[in-house]
Specification:
The chain is of the alpha/beta class and about 325 residues long. The protein is built from eleven helices and eleven strands. The strands form three sheets. It has a six-stranded parallel β-sheet with strand order 2-1-3-4-5-9, with helices on both faces. Strands 6-8-10 form a three-stranded mixed β-sheet. The mean pLDDT is about 95.
Length: about 325
């Protein structure tokens, strides 16, 4: 059951960058259900968040609809250029520049315009490659991130520095959240750019449809990952928006760590794939382990994930089968 309070949201307008995307679509639905004054989703066709002119135009357009005051406006910044290991390796410069320029100027302009609150969504890729497990927020600066996604992770990490310095110098209400890998319905299932869970689901289902006898998976299966169901992530972000006002970064996770080998075998079982799993060890493993300490989220805004992992996977698989049937 949600802990969110509609009386808070009924006093605010909310601008959600990336609100048409995977996580954003769930956040927008929840905010609308809570009765926010207005929910604004700047579309990529209308505004390029890498361009300061377009960023300023977003604020101008919102201001014109609100009698010149933005003191009720909350920004939840989800927009990002993101993808799996392959996409990060192929386009590291874009992953650095685009994510930096979508975030830093946006927060600066938000401060200048006097908005109520800025919620910056970081990335678990910001953590050092060999962070002790479970990852604790105080370890964020203890080393360099895993090389294949360091440009992305560091670009997103700069939003933490910005949020803390703007809070310190300007008393700006900015918070920084670190969601672990997300999964669920509406995820990106494009094999060129998707993360591990949707990629595995698609591979297992399409391999069965073709009558093939094996799937190929990157690495050797030894790394571990933690995953958070998308609706749980949306709940956590909105709880933090409503209840948290502090400088410390906060992890959002499920507290459940699983090896890639076990993950592949579980998805194969749930999709009904009984062929061979071939490990391509010429491809990188990525970060050796990922698992979060989630005690800050519980302490600061009473967030705990609610969706059991296997149940979340079954919902995701069912959604993907439905959209494939539709076309």
């Amino acid at each position: 059951m949600t802990q969110l309070k509609s009386e808070f949201w009924k006093n605010h307008r909310v601008l959600v960058t990336g609100g048409a995307g995977f996580l954003g679509s769930f956040i927008v639905e929840k905010i609308e259900d809570l009765g926010a004054i207005d929910v604004i989703v700047p579309r990529i066709e209308d505004y390029d968040l890498r361009d300061i002119v377009d960023i300023r135009r977003i604020f101008d357009d919102v201001t014109n609809s609100s009698n010149d005051s933005l003191s009720d406006l909350i920004i939840i910044h989800l927009a990002a250029l993101a993808g799996g290991i392959g996409a990060n390796r192929a386009r590291p410069a874009e992953f650095f520049y685009d994510n930096l320029m979508m975030g830093v100027p946006l927060m600066h302009e938000a401060w200048k315009r006097g908005i109520y609150k800025f919620v910056a969504i970081g990335s678990i890729c910001a953590y050092p490659k060999f962070t002790p497990v479970p990852f604790r927020e105080e370890n964020l600066w203890d080393g360099y991130p895993e090389e294949t996604n360091a440009p992305y992770g560091l670009a997103k990490k700069m939003l933490l520095v910005q949020a803390q310095t703007y809070r310190d110098q300007y008393d700006f209400n900015a918070i920084y959240l670190l969601p672990v890998n997300l999964y669920g319905p509406r995820d990106n299932f494009n094999l060129e750019t998707s993360h591990v869970i949707p990629a595995l689901i698609r591979k297992c289902i399409e391999t069965q449809d073709r009558g093939d006898d094996h799937i190929v998976v990157w690495g050797d299966g030894t790394p571990t990952r933690e995953f958070l169901y998308v609706e749980d992530a949306a709940e956590g972000i909105l709880l933090a928006t409503e209840k948290y006002d502090g400088p410390e970064p906060v992890n959002l996770g499920s507290g459940f760590e699983i090896s890639i080998k076990d993950l592949v075998e579980l998805i194969a079982k749930l999709t009904g794939f009984d062929g061979e799993i071939v490990w391509d060890t010429s491809k990188p493993n990525g970060q050796p382990r990922r698992g979060l300490d989630t005690s800050r989220a519980k302490k600061y805004f009473s967030f705990e994930a609610q969706t059991p992992f296997e149940e979340g996977l079954l919902r995701t698989i069912e959604w993907y089968r439905q959209i494939r049937e539709i076309g």
